[in-house]
């Protein structure tokens, strides 16, 4: 206990001594005090103050009230860090930062709280329905709310798991807009949405809703730059160019390179711009001409979201379908209240725990050791009472030496058995705790994605940390203590029955009264302990969310509200915890009073016996054991109560050990060939998918075939089923009907490891693990340093890693926080290049990189994966239009599937309208 206390104090002390944010990093002036909204003088900033190379240096900037400032640059140039220096999040080495007025911040990686959408938008502000409605319209969220079964009351899962990337970003934007701040700092908010939505969002949000506000926005989308009053071009942490759009174009250099990459792609496609009044005849495009003149350069964001309402569908039919869907889902929210067992703890829980260690073989040994200890304890006391003379005149029954030797032998024997019991209990507890933890861990790791979608991280952490700690340190000794007390109680009752059986006339009624009080107490205490366990989860969850969203919380000035919320949740936890402690004191008081009264009556009974009717030594033994009987009976009841309260932790762990798991990792009698998939052919046959049995189908009979070695572009509006299709391909979601066949093998017939290990993916939200660059690129150590460097060079990260002191062993913090989002995506590309899977999925893999870098990456993908099947979900239209086939999804159905040439020749094609809309928006300066 002392060692644990010392370790805990040291950890807390270390945390409290960590360097805090500089209070003078940003000087905040009251609203209206200055005409200058943001001013930075000679700013130099660095995330790691000990580093010799600052993150940002030589920053000089002045932004007046009402200006729109665009920030652009290549991957890792310091754009996000630039916004952080305005917020005061990055340590300041030198210089001065002044901000006049309140600020609102929208991060590049969307931060969404658990709760419903409305709570995320309001973010602690009071509801103003008119204002709320205008904010929702400005953020183009109205249509999304109509698709949700509970509208804006839909519960968002952990980290916004049940929202698409674009929806999460728009909820963030709505949160910022509702605060009515003076300054808006937006970190690449349009990369997660399609071209149509981003264009509408830019017009309604930045150009209209924020027309009178000061806006600083980071973007890779060149078409929005002409509207900015000031454009800042960053490179290697410095502002290398600053000015208006036309001025920077004339100056050339880096800015011209960024813009040229965009315009070359648009011009090379030779797609004319059409007004909304154009007829179908005016929308004709020469598809072959487009493909022929398509350059290898990637353009700007593509609209990978097709229009929601299909031509010819009546409004009434659409509404009827939507209402029918709502009716089915109205009672189903993704995140439910944490389950809580009620009533007595099942005997199955006790038996399962005892069987967890060595199949229960240690339990009888523990009982035997405790029984022998108790027997020898009683024997030693009985020996002393029997062997000692009753009076001074009586002759001793044995010699003093025999008396001492026998007593010492009995004492040594009892000591040995109690030592063995302690060793056995510790061994049992360790083995059982390990078995329970491994089973729970295996169950959680094997759980389907739907479990993580509906279960906040705080609940999982609560069980694997706090409940597991109880199992590790508390339950074995409480169980051993209960067994010890039980055997002692049986031994004491045996002695009392032999010496003065009359005492049982008082003890039996006392035992009945104690059992009644125990039953009365446990009915409340058991539920209180369960409530306490559940109330810990929100505290842990809020703590995790607050850490993840610290920059946003501080940016909005919401620290006090979150502190108040944290204290409220602590109160919610403390109330039942205090009641639980009070309840056990209630039981202790009554049992101690009852024990005292019973012991007093027993003593009166012994004194009332006629002289000579009882051996004095045996009377003394009876008094000793009578006193022990009262104490042991009370302790036995308390021990059982505390054990049952603690055993609830095992009950909760067993719940997470019985989570329905995914399919088997390996099916021995159904393993694919070692070279599978050899061709990469993917066939979808009447594929139907739903996220849970009680939820509606989201993919309706998708049927198509992707030829092996071809490039497939997948487009469609939000909610059309693109990501669901990819999840079904990896069997993250099991089909409700139909099947997926890869190279003549039904993927449902093989193990998940055999399937997933043969596929590759570059996700939109890349994941980096704490460790090094080498660990993240080659976790299984299958590749040489030369191969890793080659992959880094191809993914445009080689030079960046070479600049690090440790090269391939450069550290990666948790979640890759010391690398930009764009760099994390490039690391994911490096993984894919090393793996060289026959089938590769790109899920908006370059959404967070600049156009020039994307151009190079697309070239590399087309070269390195020339003979692979590549399925691409992308916002960049040159990538999709260059595909061999394009799949257009709409409302979970296949709207179109053909070559780009054929789709572009079809006047009624949704893909044609998609391309035309993109070209119209991206050509020239947008008319806002």
TrEMBL record:
The keyword Zinc does not apply. One of its GO terms (molecular function) is ATP hydrolysis activity. One of its GO terms (cellular component) is membrane. SMART domains: AAA. Keywords: ATP-binding, Membrane, Nucleotide-binding, Repeat, Translocase, Transmembrane, Transmembrane helix, Transport. This is ABC-type xenobiotic transporter. Residues 365-635 form the ABC transmembrane type-1 domain. Residues 322-332 have a biased composition (Basic residues). Residues 38-261, 682-916 form the ABC transporter domain. It is found in: Membrane. It is a multi-pass membrane protein. Its main location: membrane. It catalyses: ATP + H2O + xenobioticSide 1 = ADP + phosphate + xenobioticSide 2.
């Amino acid at each position: 206990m002392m060692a644990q206390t010392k370790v805990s104090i040291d950890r807390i002390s270390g945390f409290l001594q960590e360097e805090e944010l500089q209070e003078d990093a940003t000087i905040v002036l009251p609203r209206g005090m200055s005409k200058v909204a943001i001013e930075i003088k000679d700013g130099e900033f660095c995330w790691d103050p000990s580093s010799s190379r600052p993150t940002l240096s030589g920053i000089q900037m002045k932004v007046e009230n009402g200006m729109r400032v665009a920030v652009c640059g290549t991957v890792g140039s310091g754009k996000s860090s630039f916004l952080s220096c305005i917020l005061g999040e990055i340590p300041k080495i030198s210089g001065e930062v002044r901000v006049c007025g309140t600020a609102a911040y929208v991060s590049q990686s969307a931060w969404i709280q658990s709760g419903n959408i409305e709570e995320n938008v309001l973010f602690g502000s009071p509801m103003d329905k008119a204002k709320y409605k205008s904010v929702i319209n400005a953020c183009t969220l109205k249509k999304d709310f109509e698709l949700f079964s509970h509208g804006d009351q839909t519960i968002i899962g952990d980290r916004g798991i049940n929202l698409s990337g674009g929806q999460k970003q728009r909820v963030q934007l709505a949160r910022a807009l509702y605060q009515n701040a003076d300054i808006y700092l937006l970190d690449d908010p349009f990369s997660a949405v399609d071209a149509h939505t981003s264009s509408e969002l830019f017009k309604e949000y930045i150009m209209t809703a924020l027309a009178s506000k000061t806006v600083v926005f980071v973007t890779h989308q060149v078409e929005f730059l002409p509207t900015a009053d000031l454009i800042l071009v960053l490179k290697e942490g410095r502002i290398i160019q600053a000015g208006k759009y036309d001025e920077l174009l004339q100056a050339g250099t880096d800015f011209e390179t960024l813009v040229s990459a965009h315009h070359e792609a648009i011009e090379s496609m030779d797609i004319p711009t059409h007004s909304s009044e154009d007829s179908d005849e005016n929308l004709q495009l020469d598809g072959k001409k487009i493909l022929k003149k398509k350059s290898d350069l990637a353009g700007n964001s593509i609209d990978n979201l097709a229009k929601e309402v299909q031509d010819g569908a009546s409004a009434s039919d659409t509404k009827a379908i939507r209402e029918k869907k709502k009716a089915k889902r109205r009672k189903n929210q993704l995140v439910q209240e944490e389950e809580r067992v009620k009533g007595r703890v099942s005997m199955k829980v006790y038996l399962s725990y005892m069987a967890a260690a060595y199949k229960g073989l240690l339990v009888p040994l523990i009982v035997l050791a405790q029984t022998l200890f108790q027997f020898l304890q009683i024997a030693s006391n009985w020996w002393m009472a029997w062997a000692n003379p009753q009076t001074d005149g009586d002759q001793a029954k044995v010699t003093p030496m025999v008396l001492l030797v026998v007593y010492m032998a009995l004492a040594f024997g009892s000591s040995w058995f109690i030592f063995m019991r302690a060793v056995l209990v510790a061994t049992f507890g360790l083995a059982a705790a390990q078995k329970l933890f491994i089973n729970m861990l295996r169950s959680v790791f094997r759980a389907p994605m739907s479990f993580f979608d509906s279960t906040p991280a705080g609940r999982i952490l609560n069980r694997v940390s706090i409940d597991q700690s109880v199992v590790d340190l508390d339950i074995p000794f409480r169980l051993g203590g209960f067994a010890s007390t039980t055997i002692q109680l049986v031994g004491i009752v045996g002695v009392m029955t032999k010496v003065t059986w009359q005492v049982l006339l008082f003890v039996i009624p006392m035992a009945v009264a104690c059992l009644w009080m125990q039953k009365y107490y446990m009915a409340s205490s058991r539920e209180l302990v369960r409530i306490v366990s559940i109330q810990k989860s929100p505290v842990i969850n809020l703590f995790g969310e607050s850490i993840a969203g610290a920059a946003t919380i501080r940016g909005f000035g919401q620290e006090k509200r979150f502190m108040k919320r944290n204290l409220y949740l602590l109160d919610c936890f403390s109330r039942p915890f205090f009641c639980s402690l009070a309840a056990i004191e209630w039981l202790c008081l009554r049992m101690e009073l009852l024990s005292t009264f019973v012991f007093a009556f027993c003593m009166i009974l012994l004194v009332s016996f006629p002289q000579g009717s009882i051996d004095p030594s045996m009377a003394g033994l009876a008094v000793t054991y009578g006193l022990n009987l009262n104490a042991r009976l009370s302790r036995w009841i308390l021990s059982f109560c505390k054990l049952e309260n603690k055993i609830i932790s095992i009950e909760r762990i067993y719940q997470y050990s019985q989570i329905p798991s995914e399919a088997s990792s390996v099916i021995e009698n159904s393993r694919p060939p070692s070279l599978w998939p050899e061709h990469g052919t993917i066939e979808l046959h009447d594929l139907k998918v739903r996220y849970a049995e009680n939820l509606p189908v989201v993919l309706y009979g998708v049927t198509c075939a992707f030829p092996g070695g071809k490039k497939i572009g997948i487009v469609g509006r939000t909610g059309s089923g693109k990501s669901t299709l990819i999840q079904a391909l990896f069997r993250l979601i099991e089909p409700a009907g139909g099947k997926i066949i890869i190279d003549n093998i039904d993927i449902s017939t093989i193990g998940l490891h055999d399937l997933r290990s043969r596929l590759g993916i570059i996700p939109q939200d890349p994941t980096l693990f704490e460790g090094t660059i080498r660990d993240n690129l080659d976790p299984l150590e299958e590749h040489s340093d030369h191969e890793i460097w080659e992959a880094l060079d191809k993914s445009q990260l080689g030079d960046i890693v070479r600049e690090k002191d440790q090269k391939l062993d450069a550290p990666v913090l948790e979640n890759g926080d010391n690398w930009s989002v764009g760099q994390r995506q490039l690391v994911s590309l490096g993984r894919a290049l090393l793996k060289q899977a026959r089938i590769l999925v790109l899920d908006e893999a370059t959404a967070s990189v600049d156009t020039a870098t994307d151009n190079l990456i697309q070239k590399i993908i087309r070269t390195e994966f020339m003979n692979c099947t590549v399925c691409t979900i992308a916002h960049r239209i040159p990538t999709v239009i260059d595909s061999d086939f394009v799949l257009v999804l709409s409302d979970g159905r296949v709207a179109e599937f053909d070559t780009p040439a054929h789709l572009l020749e079809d006047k009624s094609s949704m893909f044609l309208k998609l391309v035309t809309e993109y070209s119209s928006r991206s050509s020239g300066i947008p008319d806002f």
